[in-house]
Amino acid sequence: MNNRLKELRAQRRWTQADLADKLEVSRQTVNAIEKGKYDPSLPLAFKLARLFDSPIESIFQEETLEPSR
Amino acid sequence: MNNRLKELRAQRRWTQADLADKLEVSRQTVNAIEKGKYDPSLPLAFKLARLFDSPIESIFQEETLEPSR
DNA sequence: CTCAAATGTAAAGCTTGCTTGACTTTAATT
DNA sequence: AATTAAAGTCAAGCAAGCTTTACATTTGAG
């Protein structure tokens, strides 16, 4: 699962710790999700969507298999 | 978290087992999510969104606190 | 009413998401 | 070069999502 967190966070000039506070999760959780170590829970994805005022699908994209041409 | 799974599934006349097959999860998982026992993982929410060709936000809604009037 | 399919429920166990605490690395500033 | 904030990483532990097996209840067709 790819995501645009780093980009969205940078636009707002928030640190990972800032974002963690707003989401009410730990800084390590934000870091792990940003780095793609794991996917957020659905409730956390909703919080991110609200915070960034964007649909979940615009923040997270399933990496789909490349068509083999 | 509320969801419209039962409704969407009924529209297509699929059983919980049918849906479980398409999602590649167990029937009990479909049942539990439909009944609101727990939220799906984000990847599973994406599978549902693709299957029902609907945004995640249109399938799942965070139940927000009622304004106290 | 009967029978079968569908739905609901429960327990035990594995995997994944998230926490805290601690430490290291990177990048920017002086 | 030294300092500091931010980012990255690791380990141990708890919580949530999902599995399998098994059984009970509900629904609907005949």
Please describe the structure with a list of short key phrases separated by commas or semicolons:
DNA-binding; homodimer; mainly alpha; 5 helices; 69 residues; two-stranded antiparallel sheet; 6% strand
Oligomer: homodimer
Helical fraction of chain A: 55-70%
Widest β-sheet, arrangement of strands of chain A: 1-2
The third-level CATH topology of chain A is 434 Repressor (Amino-terminal Domain)
Query: Cα distance, first to last residue of chain A?
Result: 22 Å
The coarse silhouette of chain A is globular
Amount of beta strand of chain A: 5-15%
Q: What number of structural domains do the residues of chain A give?
A: 1
Largest interface: A-B, 14 and 14 residues
CATH class of chain A: Mainly Alpha
CATH architectural grouping of chain A? Orthogonal Bundle
Question: Can you describe this structure?
Answer:
Chain A is mostly helical. Chain A has a single domain, classed as 434 Repressor (Amino-terminal Domain), CATH 1.10.260. Chain A is built from five helices and two strands. Chain A has helices at residues 5-12, 16-23, 27-34, 42-51, 56-59, and strands at 2-3, 60-61. A two-stranded antiparallel sheet of chain A has the order 1-2. The longest helix of chain A is centred in the C-terminal third of the chain and has 10 residues, at 42-51. The model of chain A has no long low-confidence stretch (mean pLDDT 94). Chain A binds a DNA duplex (30 and 30 nucleotides) through α3.
Task: Give the secondary structure arrangement, pairings included.
The structure is a homodimer of 69-residue chains.
Chain A: E1 2-3, H1 5-12, H2 16-23, H3 27-34, H4 42-51, H5 56-59, E2 60-61
Antiparallel strand pairs in A: 1-2
Helix pairs in contact in A: 2-3
The structure holds a DNA duplex (30 and 30 nucleotides).
